[in-house]
Amino acid sequence: MRILELTNYSAGGCGVYARVREEAQLLAKKGHEVRIFSSNRVKGSKEMAQRHDSIGNVKITRFKARQRGGESYLKWDFEKEALEYNPDIVIAHSYRHLHTTEIIRLREKKRLKCKIFLVTHAPFDRDATRNIISKLSVWIYDNSPWGLGKSTLKKFDKIIAITKWERPYLHKLGVPDSKIVYIPNGIPDILFKAPKKIKEEHKIIFIGRVAPIKQIETVIDALPLLKDKEITFEIVGPAEKEYLTRLKRLIADKDVEKRVIFTDAIYDMREKINKLDSATFFILPSKSEGMPQSLIEAMARKKIVVASENPASKDLIVNGKNGFLYKNGNEQDCARVLDAISALSQKEKKAIQDAALRSVRRFSWDKIIEDFEKIFKSSIEPL
């Protein structure tokens, strides 16, 4: 089959693209012809990526984009190339984005003979990260009579939810259960199989985009409150400049310069595994998440994980069983939880680490691709 993946970014530290990249390569290995179309923007920077690129057998085409709202709300014209490629299947990523409505329009107006699946990427329950204008825009899109949300969702052949917690939101938007398929983000088998080569250091680690939505300041605020004054905090990932400046100012104000380390983004999986293995705890302090890739990767490496209470993290962590949760944005509660973990016996820690690993085995990419191919086989009849 000819498969087209549509996503806003195919360069930079983008969680959506992390899924697209792995998904596309594995589908290509299964014998499908796979292409990725995206904007030419580099996520998290003002740079532009090259027009043509490839990963393995997957060809990437990028298009000039115009910003129409927030950082990821982009308009880019891929009509000519989509019609030339004439895919059998389109996997459009991210609900409420212009490319997902555009591909529906192309099928209606230009008679593309393809099935179109929408991967939502869980954009719900994110008011804490939006300003008043963004909140109003989201409400209009989802709920108003002239909004595109409900009418557009009806036109997709399947809605692929990456988390279980978003199902009620989709029901509210008029999507029947029969149209929703749960296919979470996957993690490569190497995370389960790679031996530990790195000695564990006495530190907490965060791996991900260094951006306001990640709320890293909560952990920095918690550091002086910890009973353990020796533990350090390593922040790994591509940083937004303004936010990085804010964090460095806070670090100086809290007098914890010697306890906080910044490390550049790591894209090589073996290097990332070594970095995860080097830490005592993994922490994800985000205001909100879709499905947090870095969290399940850390759990696959048998890390003791700590996360802020939001629907995505609560979907993965059973507090005290396979990880720990603290009140979102609350540095006192974050410090309390970290102190409590430090007081656990080695036997108690091992039980939590083993439970973390067991709970994420279902996210193996082999299982994810099997689920996709089942949908493909049931969708090959002509429109």
Mind explaining what this structure looks like?
This protein has 383 residues and is an alpha/beta fold. The chain has two domains: 2-186 and 364-377, Glycogen Phosphorylase B (Rossmann fold); 190-362, 3-Layer(aba) Sandwich (Rossmann fold). 38% of the residues lie in helices and 19% in strands. It has 15 helices and 16 strands. An eight-stranded mixed β-sheet has the order 3-4-2-1-7-8-9-10, with helices on both faces. Strands 13-12-11-14-15-16 form a six-stranded parallel β-sheet, sandwiched between helices. Strands 5-6 form a two-stranded antiparallel ribbon. Helix 1 (15-29) packs across helix 15 (365-377). The longest helix is centred in the first third of the chain and has 15 residues, at 15-29. It is globular. The chain starts with a strand and ends in a 6-residue tail after the last helix. The model has no long low-confidence stretch (mean pLDDT 92).
**What is the fourth-level CATH superfamily of the largest domain?**
Glycogen Phosphorylase B
Structural class: alpha/beta
The top-level CATH class of the largest domain is Alpha Beta
Give the CA-CA distance, first to last residue.
15 Å
Q: Give the amount of beta strand, in percent.
A: 15-25%
Fraction of residues in H or I helices: 25-40%
Report the oligomer.
Answer: single chain
Tally the helices. 15
Number of strands: 16
Count of spatially separate domains: 2
CATH architecture classification name of the largest domain? 3-Layer(aba) Sandwich
Shape descriptor: globular
**CATH structural fold name of the largest domain:** Rossmann fold
The neighbouring-strand order within the major sheet is 3-4-2-1-7-8-9-10
Mean pLDDT: 92
Largest sheet: 8 strands, mixed
Rg, rounded, reads 21 Å
Uncertain regions spanning at least 5 consecutive residues:
none
